[in-house]
Design goal:
Immunoglobulin-like; 8-stranded antiparallel sheet; mainly beta
């Protein structure tokens, strides 16, 4: 992947004006988040300092059908200035929550200058997707993903760390630029407190306020449920420090409102009140949505021939502890209500070659941190079946040791994870329609590694998207052997694809060659995309995503 912020600057940024056509649809608006007061100030010129010589101009405004944003991208192609334009209507509530805008960029051409101009001759060609995440009204992250019709723009993604050049619209002030923080309508302080507590556990919270205010300070705290209902309100006078206890499991937001000496609203603090999960699973057990979220108080085990099941929508805070399955770990969520595992290690436990065997079955699961099927140091006998799931920033690699039944990894997203390494004997393994990006391999040989294939077990590695162009991706070791046709590599350059494969073409000591032809020239239609990944992450509770950087799935 090209990372422009590592390149040297060459020329100065140039300015221009351009006329574009807005492609819009009607969307409702609900202004209630921090970006509400600075949208207008986002208008103006932005650039990446190490890409001095190209940049972006934003225009935030309103159409008859709703708020709209337009972006003009000024860059170069074949030695001459080149412009792309994109426009989108956005839903203010969603933008205020995420700071995310996504544009389909178009090249507009086909007519002449002055008297030669003919509007009917204009041609509009879509070239790809440009996404922005505004961290504030002065900083933003941008990502360019060329489309299948990118033409002369090639097939490589580009990233930008942007800062604002102009100070927005005349008369429209960004809160960061204000000379003082006295605007009563701004969110001027944040609440400090734990992210996860147990049901009935008392915990202290405070707010980051100017100490000089506390003597005359008064106001109230509000606890809001995830559905927007008020759970509780209570007044305070003087110091905002207080102790809180919630007796019902769920997801909540805590907000501080001051009434004196000024009326102000703080930035909401998201937290979870969880049911404690302790002790080994000795009989069939189900984690219910009614008692969710759950909090692992220690590492636990699932007994042989026993199932631990999860209702759709259940959230587990592992807090670094593990669930080791000697029986069946069955987490079946839905696209709308995934099972969420936060910082939880899901570990295989079956060590008996003659059974009983374990299984780890994941369907529409979102794992944030933690580990999946990490090395146990012993032979393990069971299988993994993971479908339609997100695996984000896993802390260790996945090590599948001689599964006893068909192992399937299908339509998943692996972002910021280590290797998927496996050995098979007698049973098939299918790794299909997965998206792999932002690799973090431990051994730097590749993210999919086969170290054993005995008795000609069927290995299917097809229709995946490998998006870290030029990085080690496929690997065979020892007795491994497999082919990987019909995958998308983020490029159609065969030399680059070959460089992403560690096999006998690179090291004659390795057992064979991984055949990658024929390869896909664009992602398979059933394989998840980065945009789909972002959309799914945005649907997860804020209490589990607030630790993620803006760059996840870009």
């Amino acid at each position: 992947m090209i990372r422009p912020h590592q390149l040297s600057a060459t020329t100065r940024f140039f300015y221009a004006l351009c006329i574009g056509v807005l492609f819009v649809s009607s969307i409702s608006a609900d202004d209630n988040r921090p970006f509400t007061d600075i949208r207008g100030s986002l208008s103006g010129s932005w650039y990446d300092p190490v890409r001095n010589g190209e940049g972006f101009i934003f225009e935030f405004g309103n159409n008859p059908s709703g708020p709209a944003a337009t972006v003009f991208w000024f860059t170069h192609l074949d030695g001459v200035p080149y412009w792309l334009i994109g426009s989108v209507e956005y839903e203010p509530r969603l933008f205020d929550q995420s700071g995310l805008l996504e544009f389909t960029m178009a090249e507009v051409s086909g007519t002449g200058f002055g008297g030669e101009f003919d509007a009917s001759a204009l041609a509009r060609l879509e070239r790809g997707q440009l996404s922005f995440v505004f961290d504030s009204c002065n900083k933003a992250f941008a990502s360019w993903q060329p489309g299948k019709d990118a033409g002369p723009l090639g097939d490589q993604s580009v990233e930008y760390q942007l800062q604002r050049i102009t100070l927005g619209l005349d008369g429209v002030t960004c809160a960061e630029d204000a000379p003082s923080a006295d605007d009563n309508d701004q969110n001027l302080f944040e609440i400090q407190g734990p992210k996860v507590v147990s049901v009935g556990e008392s915990f202290r919270v405070t707010a980051d306020l100017d100490v000089s205010e506390t003597s005359a300070l008064s106001g109230f705290w509000r606890i809001t449920k995830s559905n927007g209902e008020t759970y509780r309100e209570f007044d305070f006078s003087g110091s905002p420090d207080t102790s809180i206890e919630v007796s019902t499991p769920g997801l909540y937001t805590l907000t501080l409102f001051t009434t004196s000496p000024k009326q102000r609203e703080g930035v909401g603090h998201s937290f979870a009140v969880a049911t404690e999960l302790t002790g080994n699973v000795m009989t069939d057990t189900r984690l219910t949505l009614n008692d969710s979220p759950y909090r692992l108080m220690d590492s636990i085990q699932i007994r042989q021939e026993t199932e631990l099941g999860f209702d759709a929508g259940v959230l587990v805070f592992g807090e670094g502890h593990s669930i080791r399955s000697f029986g069946d770990f069955v987490a079946n969520g839905t696209a709308e209500r995934p099972v969420v595992l936060h910082n939880t290690a899901v570990i295989p436990g079956g060590t008996q070659s003659d059974g009983p065997y374990f299984s780890i079955q994941l369907d529409n699961v979102a794992m944030i941190g933690g580990t999946l099927y990490e090395p146990s140091g012993n032979a393990i006998y069971g299988y993994l079946d993971a479908r339609d799931s997100l695996f984000i920033n896993l802390q260790r690699y996945t090590y599948i040791w001689y599964p006893n039944d068909k192992t399937v990894l299908h339509r998943n997203v692996f972002w910021g994870t280590g290797e998927l390494t496996f050995g098979v004997r007698d049973v098939p393994i299918e790794i299909t329609n997965n998206l792999f990006a932002n690799y973090r391999p431990i051994f730097a040989d590749g993210v999919i590694q086969n170290w054993a294939n005995y008795r000609d077990s069927t290995i299917k590695v097809e229709r995946n998207s490998f998006l870290d162009v030029g990085e080690p991706t496929l690997d065979i070791q020892s007795d491994g052997q497999y082919s990987a046709p019909r995958n998308y590599w983020g490029t159609t350059n065969e030399e680059i694809i070959q460089s992403m494969i560690n096999d006998a073409n690179v090291d004659f000591a390795l057992p064979g060659v991984i055949e990658f032809r024929p390869f896909l020239t664009e992602p398979d239609i059933e394989t998840p995309t980065l945009r789909e990944c972002r959309e799914r992450i945005q649907q997860l509770p804020k209490v589990v995503t607030d630790e993620l950087s803006a760059e996840v799935c870009f």
